[in-house]
Amino acid sequence: MTESDGAEFAARYGPWAVIAGASEGIGAALADELGALGLNVVLIARNGALLEEVASGVRDRHGVRTQVVVQDLTAADASTRIAAATADLEVGLLVYNAGASDRTTPFLRNELEYSLHQVALDCIGPLALTHHFGPAMCDRGRGGIVIVASLACLAGSATLAVYSAVKAFQHTFAEGLWAELRPHGVDVCCTPLGMTYTPALARMGVEYDPQTQMRSEDVAAEIIANVGSGPTFVVGENNRAVAQQVWTIDRRTLVEMMSAASTEFAESRDR
Questions:
Q1: Does the first or last residue of the chain, that is N or C, have fewer Cβ atoms within 10 Å of its Cβ?
Q2: Active site residue 163
Q3: What CATH code is carried by the domain that includes residue 128?
Q4: What confidence tens digit (pLDDT) does each residue in 10-22 have?
């Protein structure tokens, strides 16, 4: 973005942005992108030490204000606590980036609590925070809400049954919000991602492959450049091509294809 584009962005989506899931990877890169555009940032995640490190870097590089909220987004009172922590801030942008998958395991082999945790993180979390921050944006007639999803939303998939389901919720929820909030001047965009090389992926034992994976920094830049490109903007040129092709396939074939790919990935990790 040019300097004038950055000023326009800050005027539309500032002065504060809230990033849920900001301790590393894409979330940290999003904080840096927004700081470079002159927005102050609220960083939310469970790991306070990592959040402070991200916040310090954004402040030092861009001279903006930062606020850290150490919060488990699956807690029943998460939205209440976040609302209290940000009560004196004018939040013009909400980016819900939490909810990466750390398992590729058949549903019945997972503990029920693990699956319910995914529902809380990926469904209840963005719903509750949107319900809190959305009204003020509508009243001001400007703002943005971004829900960072996954191409797993395209269809159900073996070994990712709950993950693909909650990402489908995010996709459909964001599209409905886009239709509702657009007349009030609030942009809503779901940004499904393909495989992105993050610390979470590295912890799963996956090595970086430039042919199939994007970098967190490139993903973050593309998301921020397309806040107004809703209701859905698939991140990555190759991912957009894949999504366009997939959306023309009948559902049974699509589920079989997605399941084969996820099963192969799970088996490769076990070798």
A1: C
A2: yes
A3: 3.40.50.720
A4: 999 999 999 999 9
